[in-house]
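Researcher: I'd like a structural prediction for the single chain below. Treat it as a standalone chain; there are no partners to consider.
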Amino acid sequence: MNKIGEGITPQSQEKRDLLVLLERAQSRSGYLSQELIAELAESLGLSISEVYGVASFYSFLSIKPQGRNVIRICKSIPCYLKDAQTIIEGVRKEIGIKPGETTPDGRFSFELTNCIGACDRAPAMMVNNDVHVDLTPKKISQILKVYK
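Model: Treating it as a single chain, here is the predicted structure.
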C-alpha cells in the first residue's frame, strides 16, 4: 500500500511548489524578471525554460514590469455574452491604453484574462485583488478613481 508522499524527493516537492514560489516572488518584486527566473530555476534544479514556461503560461503571473494597479478584465464566454467588449473599451478610454499595456505614469497595467471566477455576475474585472462585477461603462470611472 502506498503512503501519501512516499517516493517524493525534496526536489520533486520543490517542482510542485514552483507556482507558489513564483506567486510569492511576484508579490515581492511586482513581476518575474529574467534574473529571478534564473535564480529560482537554479535553486530548484530546473532549467530556465521550465520555470519560464510556467511563469509565462499563467495569466496572473507577469514576466514584464506591471503598473501599481493591474486591471484584469474577464474575456470568458459569460462575460463576452454580457458585453465585456463594452467594458474593455470603457477601460481603454478611461486610462488611455490597450490591453497588454501599462500607462506611462505606471499607475495602471491593463490585461485580459480567461476567468476571474465571477461568471455569475458578468461582466467582471479585477483591479489588483479586488473583484468588480455587474460592470457598466459608467461604473468603470468610479471604480478606477479609487486606485492611485
